[in-house]
Amino acid sequence: MNPEHPEAREAPTDHPQERESHGDRDRAHGRDRDHEHDHGRDPEQGKPVGRRIFLGTLGLGALGVVSAPVLQRGLEGFLGDAAQKDPTGLTGLLPNGGGFRYYSVTASVPRRTARNYRLTVDGLVDRPTSYTLADLRALPQTRMVKDVQCVTGWRVPDTPFEGVRLSVLLDAAGVRSSAGAVRFTCFDGAYSESLTLAQARRADVLVALRMQDEDISHNHGGPVRLYAAPMYFYKSAKWLSGIEVTEDVEPGYWEKRGYDIDAWVGRSNGRDDEPTT
Amino acid sequence: MNRRPETPPAGTGTGAGTREEAGAGASARVRRFTTAERWIHRTTAALMGVCVVTAACLYLPSLAALVGRRALVVTVHQWAGLLLPLPVLAGLASRAFRADLGRLNRWGPHDRVWLRAVRRRTPGPRPAAKFNAGQKVYAAWIAGATLVMLATGLIMWFTHLTPLAWRTSATFVHDWLALTVGIVLAGHIGMALGDPEARRGLRTGLVTKEWADREHPLWRP
Questions:
Q1: Out of 3.90.550.10, 3.40.50.12780, 3.30.360.10, 3.90.420.10, which CATH number does the structure's domain A119-257 have?
Q2: Residues A144-201: pLDDT tens digits?
Q3: Chain A contact set for B9 (CB, 8 A)
Q4: Which of A27, A35, A195, B101 sits 20 to 30 Å CA-CA off B121?
């Protein structure tokens, strides 16, 4: 652009005199614009590298989106292995780093223990019931090990869940013939979920007491949460406190905000994840 | 406003009169940013801050457990992200801002000298005009990254507008770029914390002549 400049810039010591003379020369070359900062123009001239970096970043972003399926598979494999050998747990903070993420829709969730936890079953049933934690533990327990898939993308492989089949509780309460759905409420005071009666009676839908072979901790929705194995994890309501048999499906918390009610993994919410069951 | 040939070297403090002065008795100060430019930076920084804080509350398990309120945090994050480019776009109405964008865009040979000196950590001259090469790289990259975040964010937000495979890919890019932006932003803020005069430039619009001569020797305000 301006062949004299490189040498001048290689030795940019503070010589106002020199710089001024450059400015004069530039003006003589007619490069100045009608601008009040005209004298400061010449060091600001040059190749539009900024624009190239800007466009390059955009291009890389687009390339990232296009190549994401391949990159993601590779990274998940690598990070999955790394997470096994990572005592710091830092890999868990990386995207696709594995592990569960904590989602709550309320500011804080009260804690319930074996002492004050109750699960009520009511609505269109012949025998409304209330269970303590000990009551639930005394019922036949079912354990299953499947992947957990969140609708936001993360997946935790081979996670054991253990608890009472929901169908057992429904049968014990005596579901009336007019019933068509089950609604779940939670002691966080806000969350709710729903399943059709047919979905709720599936053998892979549990009222879960244990997860990863431990009692479910508070942050994971303990002491009792729903576990709907074939569906995205938002269906598996945390902090479960109420089971109400209803006539029709009522959209749950996230479903009122656009999520699918029939949340089969891989066949809903515009996602194509591998099914979990 | 122009530096005159008779302007004495930096540090003598007798250059008053050749540059804009702020306050009696203070050393000579030169205008670095106009009011409009400072507000562009402030509003952009505030929106970016909201994006980062809400992102952390959505993403880091311990913060998510502390804050909860997921639907609210998501909404705030989405709107802050959507508004993030607006201050810069509105700022295009400012002539001074457009001029500075031009300065950030254009690279002279001194920028390569600056980058080499910084990369090799060599002492000696680090020539820079109004913006040094690091600031130029940062500005161009963060502008591009912000738009990539906005585009991928919109794909995740309006799920039914794009094919489903796009959304998974957009999430992937959004997550990893967010991590990168976080690190780079921390660097940006760290550099600012280490340079009070640069911060004063963005707070008041004025910097001392000594600082300008030392940090930006090729800049002629």
A1: 3.90.420.10
A2: 999 999 887 788 889 999 999 999 999 999 999 999 999 999 999 899 999 999 999 9
A3: 14, 16
A4: B101
Q: Chain A 97-156, CB below 8 Å of chain B: which residues? A: 100-109, 152-153
Query: Pick from A188, A190, A180, A181: which is nearest to A220 by CA?
Result: A188
User: Looking at chain A, how many residues does it have?
Assistant: 277
Q: B176, B181, B214, B219: best mutation site toward chain A, by most A Cβ within 10 Å?
A: B176
Structure tokens at B27: 């050393």
Strands A142-149 and A129-131: unpaired
Give the ipTM. 0.84
Identify the structural domains of chain B with CATH numbers, from first to last: 29-215 (1.20.950.20)
Which of A6, A40, A272 lies closest to B221 in CB terms? A40
* B28: chain A residues, CB-CB within 8 Å: none
* Each residue's pLDDT tens digit, A194-230: 999 999 999 999 999 999 999 999 989 999 999 999 9
Q: Does A96 touch chain B (CB under 8 A)?
A: yes
Closest-CA distance, A266 to chain B, in angstroms, reads 11
Ordered by start, the domain boundaries in chain A are 5-44, 49-93, 119-257
Among B151, B145, B146, B143, CA closest to B170: B151
- How far, in Å, CA of A82 to CA of A79, rounded? 5
Alpha helices in chain B (DSSP H): 35-59, 61-67, 70-83, 86-91, 95-105, 109-119, 133-157, 164-193, 196-204, 209-215
A window 175-214, beta carbon within 8 A of B = none
Q: Do B172 and A64 touch (CB under 8 A)?
A: yes
Can you list the alpha helix ranges (DSSP code H) found in B16-108? 35-59, 61-67, 70-83, 86-91, 95-105
Nearest Cα neighbor of B77 from B183, B157, B167, B144 is B157
Cβ pair B81, B153 in contact under 8 A: yes
Read off the pLDDT of each residue in B18-44 and give the average, rounded to a whole number. 78
